[in-house]
Amino acid sequence: MTDIHRTHYASQLGEDLVGKQVRIGGWIEDIRDIGKLAFITVRDVTGACQLVVTGDNVPLAVQTPRQSAIVAAGTVQKSKAKDFPIEVKVTEFTVLTRAVHPLPIDPTGRVESSFDKRLDARALDLRNPRVAAIFRLRSAGLQVIRDTLAKEGFIEVNTPKVIGSASEGGANLFGFDYFKRKAYLAQSPQLYKEQLTLGLDRVFEIGPYFRAENSHTVRHLSEFISVDVEAAYMDYEDVMDIVERLVGNVIREFREKRRADVETAGLKTDLSFDKIDRLTYEQCLEELSKEGEKLQFGDDLSDAALRRLGEIHRGFYFIMDWPLKLKPFYIHEKEDNPKLSKSFDLQYGYLELVSGGRRLHDPEKLRSRLAEQGLNPASFSEHLKAFDWGMPPHSGWGLGFDRLMMVLTGAQNIRDVVLYPRDTERLTP
Ligand code: ATP
Ligand code: MG
């Protein structure tokens, strides 16, 4: 029976181990056959190491296809190779699973593959250290977000993704059969997280949301991960402060503690900020007007307009105080100017990362706003009833985590930072 365990990862092999026995597990990246012996480069999730194979093991080793999974045991010794200061002189070499040939992509990255082919072979693509580093950073980012929100007094919740009616009244919902009824995939946890502030005060959820948008862009997917927060007794500027601290913490973590992955992934690291600029919607209209882009109060900021703004403001910036009529029914108006709303977006250049705001908590106001927006309060009765139970004032936001990762890794396409993207074309793997 083969022992499938390893004693060390490749990156743990150091001079201190010279003369010691080790077991290595990984995949074959390269084979150099020089007759009586062979040099095998084995890679694992931490890096690569060199094996020296001799004797009866040579024919087996040199015939094993690249990317096959192996374990090897042997003695650590100094090496003359220029890439490896030490190597393992192998006494046992076992092929666990052979890789087929030819493989659909070259995960070493030496032969360039099309992005579609890489996505079709995503599991194999992750053997490319640059790609794996992106997903390690993604995991680190989520960890920082959880830690930050926990420290700010938020508790993590899970709300249903299968829902019985359109949560925000919009189209864009995927519907399906549900035990002789119609159900939908949630497009956001908006209504649930608001209800939860009633008893849990500050909540956050990290989960997948679904939008049946027929978009063909580098920033929209039909399934994406959102970080959602909602907090009682906070106004919109308070939750903007939270976004700012959260994004700052993720950037600091990457710069200070994840340097190796940042370097492997080949990322730029000039993202830090002290304070994020807070522009109002009306200031944006003025700036755009100076650039020759004439918009009327109440116009949405088009893709072209946002790209213009993104050229003026290259990094992160907030756009706040949007016209109320551009915002969903649950957004609170500004008390001193009810044409405006207590709302904001966090932008990075042209790209929207976060939308949030203060919410209406008064049930009467909420009912009349639904009606004003042409929605039927009766179809929101399940939601509205919670507002009759002593709802506290509250504010919150939703952050597109995949989009944040695009910015932090410098990816031009959201699909670069999502393992198995779902869009209008892609439903596999
Ligand atoms: P956009 O205008 O860019 O389509 P939105 O305003 O419709 O976004 P929101 O409903 O405000 O999106 O959702 C909150 C956040 O979730 C967005 O700021 C964005 O970061 C992210 N997001 C929304 N839709 C998608 C999507 N289809 N794919 C990836 N992320 C998304
Ligand atoms: Mg938005």
Number of strands: 18
Indicate the CATH topology of the largest domain.
BirA Bifunctional Protein, domain 2
Task: List each distinct ligand once.
Answer: adenosine-5'-triphosphate, magnesium ion
Helix/sheet category: alpha+beta
The CATH homologous superfamily name of the largest domain equals Bira Bifunctional Protein, Domain 2
User: Strand-residue fraction?
Assistant: 25-35%
Spatial shape: elongated
What is the CATH class of the largest domain? Alpha Beta
Mean pLDDT: 96
Give the secondary structure arrangement, pairings included.
Layout: E1 21-33, E2 37-44, E3 47-54, H1 57-63, E4 69-78, E5 86-97, H2 115-120, H3 122-125, H4 129-151, E6 155-156, E7 162-163, E8 175-178, E9 181-185, H5 190-200, E10 202-210, E11 223-232, H6 236-257, H7 259-264, E12 277-280, H8 281-290, H9 303-312, E13 316-320, E14 333-334, E15 337-341, E16 343-348, E17 351-358, H10 363-372, H11 381-387, E18 394-400, H12 401-409
Parallel strand pairs: 3-5, 6-10, 12-13
Antiparallel strand pairs: 1-2, 1-4, 2-3, 4-5, 7-9, 8-9, 10-11, 11-18, 13-16, 14-15, 16-17, 17-18
Helix pairs in contact: 4-6
Bound molecules: adenosine-5'-triphosphate (ATP) and magnesium ion.
3D structure, described in words:
With 429 residues, the protein is α+β, with helices and mostly antiparallel strands. It folds into two domains: 10-97, Nucleic acid-binding proteins (OB fold (Dihydrolipoamide Acetyltransferase, E2P)), CATH 2.40.50.140; 129-417, BirA Bifunctional Protein, domain 2, CATH 3.30.930.10. Helix content is 29%, strand content 28%. The chain has twelve helices and 18 strands. It has helices at 57-63, 115-120, 122-125, 129-151, 190-200, 236-257, 259-264, 281-290, 303-312, 363-372, 381-387, 401-409, and strands at 21-33, 37-44, 47-54, 69-78, 86-97, 155-156, 162-163, 175-178, 181-185, 202-210, 223-232, 277-280, 316-320, 333-334, 337-341, 343-348, 351-358, 394-400. The strands form four sheets. An eight-stranded mixed sheet has the order 6-10-11-18-17-16-13-12. A hairpin with a 2-residue loop joins strand 14 (333-334) and strand 15. Helix 4 packs across helix 6 (236-257). The protein is elongated and about 85 Å long. The model has no long low-confidence stretch (mean pLDDT 96). Residues 345, 352, 355 line the site of magnesium ion. Magnesium ion (MG) is lined by residues 345, 352, 355.
